[in-house]
Amino acid sequence: MVSRIADEKPQPQLLSKKASCNSHGQDSSYFLGWQEYEKNPYDPVSNPAGIIQMGLAENQLSFNLLESWLEANPDALALRREGASVFRELALFQDYHGMPAFKNALARFMSEQRGYRVVFDPSNIVLTAGATSANEALVFCLADHGDAFLIPTPYYPGFDRDLKWRTGSEIVPVHCKSADGFRVTRTALNDAYRRAQKRRLRVKGVLITNPSNPLGTTSPRADLEMLVDFVAAKGIHLVSDEIYSGTAFAEPGFVSVLEVVAARGGADVSDRVHVVYSLSKDLGLPGFRVGAIYSSNAAVVSAATKMSSFGLVSSQTQHLLAMLLSDKDFTRKYIAENKRRIKERRDQLVKGLRAIDIGCLESNAGLFCWVDMGHLMRSRSFEGEMELWKKVVFEVGLNISPGSSCHCREPGWFRVCFANMSPKTLDVALQRLGAFVEAGKGLRRAPARSVYHRFATKWALRLTPASADRKAER
Fold this sequence. Notes:
The chain is α/β, with parallel strands linked by helices. It is built from 17 helices and 15 strands. The radius of gyration is 24 Å and the shape is globular.
């Protein structure tokens, strides 16, 4: 019998190199934890043994305020203005520059979030399909394939996807230390810049998140001044992702980088400082996909506007939000109440963690805490961090994000979100974690299986730990 193998022709490569490469970052523990949660999500009634999602930075705390506003303003959803239908107007073609009414309302809301210490010009706003699209568009505008951005660590794991995957740009971590409260220093910036030069990478800018994701802290004015001085000296750009600006609930308050630029006259750096914003966190509307780039650089605004045609915000969404954001009385009350609720929920988490001897970085913003669980690890290493993370996900049933996924150099830190669940669910999560910590005190006296038996529910036993057992991000 003659084999056909020798006669078979090699199959053509059906996908592009970009589509088939592994540079999306999907194998990060950050995304793997999400995958395990989606297989078995917690529900207090139908699935009380499921995984509680504490890896999602979503703001559900003030959703009822938005719902109440919609009930009181039915024209917004009914596509009406002063009682008359605007369906035809919205359904037909819209310019990708965005609807003037919405851009004006968004500019005022952004100014209001910053106490009008910065006043935003609607003509400098580029609308995008969320902050993800905004950050990528900015990278496309500012850098070529192979160019680099410096980003202080720990940083949002999604940046490895958002900034690199399609653009071909590189990220050079600016390593920050717990001894400094993870604040960025000039020494760390200079070190990262030198490392980029050794790799023959052209540094095009620094990107920060302020308030910080995952730290939950605002950048002090002195740090922002140092960053502006640094980019001015190097002749590079500064991108400030300020999507959590409206979540700052305690002192020191939020300071926008644009305040610092304005204070120094702005002439030397104003065209190289850019802000990213969205309504996903402050207003709790991630599903609406509304993001924005703000820049005083006319060339950047022009190029980013052209790019925005690949990810427009629907006219229907702009119409609804223009009406909502134009209600000044509502937005003022919403901002104040939302901050109060965030602080209350943050305090619940911190108090619960403290009761089981787990500490965290002092925070004043954001929808998460940066939690130190290093003392629960068998070894102070990234291997020890991964071992603990897998136990928390597979046995305790909590999806939290390990610090290594955020490129933190010190093992044992985890990002824990608190604003996407009810107080009762947060209590359940804390009870689970407390029982785990208490059981861990007797590790030398009992086999691991019996110690964690109460958490080893049927769903956990069916999971394959190897699927999440990837090399820790260094």
